[in-house]
């Protein structure tokens, strides 16, 4: 009867701010704080105190007037809301230069993200291991994603292949795509896409620099 | 008298879309097209035709009714507007796991971005070369950025060091910061910041997956 319930669905802007709160809470805990008030967090982060109060309240930890939230319980609750309290397995599709760089990025571990397997269409890469992750052919994607019950796909393929690969991920049961391509993916509503478009970001910077020199 | 004028300052949303147009234009040129109309580009990219017409007109290439723009001239003009027609030199600050991954990312070359030198506070890294880029101590940052006339800084330091490093970059004359930390940087108005917050992006995905399983 007492099954573990999944965390409540929270507003996306709150979720986007949670990693920043988490860093601040971690610093306060390291500094020896046992209780943390939303006012202190808001001040340290330069945020609106009302916003910080609402965001932290949504973590569902009972706070005490004047003292604030118990620091460790608040940290745990935010980690849980982010799904960072247990490992999230992911697959990476496209082992080019960016895919390879992400496979080598150790920062994901901090957030309990683990890339279980990588896929590529290049036969020359088959069976090779990059940063401890084995490359498999695209044909194996549906079977492996289902068998490993993986819900997150990291897309680092060339633009021309992006939509087709996203379609394959969705068909295999993925419910979140981390899209590092420049393509606006067309996916069903139930699938969440987060775009990290380095070319777009660089465009703004290099345009700014070009027009000022 | 006939000095080369810098490209006009364009609206940021247009600049953000330019890399996507560029990819489409490159594909059409590869397919043998000599002229490109905004209507064709809009259709291929699923964009509003009025928006695409305005965006492409801002590149400043004279088009012809019915035929469209000369393909190569349009490609050159967009590359120029993005500052991708000549090499942009950058410095990278923070040679941790992410900094190292970015130093190894060959995709920047496609956009004529070159990381000239990297800085780190860790004495153990001094003088080492990662992916062909030498690591220098932070003390050398002001002098080297000025001497090499570098305008773009890539920030991949731990959060706690982010603002101080940004301050050093700004003081050295940087006018664009590519911020891969989770910190909202406080910089003068004349400095453009582009945030790529992987933790925030991952938070949305892992929260979604945690609340659906």
Word description of this protein:
The structure is a homodimer of 213-residue chains. The first copy, chain A, has 213 residues and is α/β, with parallel strands linked by helices. In chain A, 44% of the residues lie in helices and 17% in strands. Chain A is built from nine helices and nine strands. Chain A has helices at residues 12-30, 38-45, 49-57, 71-81, 97-103, 107-110, 141-147, 159-171, 198-212, and strands at residues 35-36, 69-70, 88-93, 113-120, 129-130, 133-137, 152-155, 176-179, 192-195. In chain A, strand 7, helix 8 and strand 8 (176-179) form a beta-alpha-beta unit. Chain A is globular and about 60 Å long. The interface between A and B is large, with 65 and 65 residues.
List keywords for this structure.
homodimer; 9 helices
SSE order and pairing:
The structure is a homodimer of 213-residue chains.
Chain A: H1 12-30, E1 35-36, H2 38-45, H3 49-57, E2 69-70, H4 71-81, E3 88-93, H5 97-103, H6 107-110, E4 113-120, E5 129-130, E6 133-137, H7 141-147, E7 152-155, H8 159-171, E8 176-179, E9 192-195, H9 198-212
Parallel strand pairs in A: 3-4, 3-7, 4-6, 7-8, 8-9
Antiparallel strand pairs in A: 1-2, 5-6
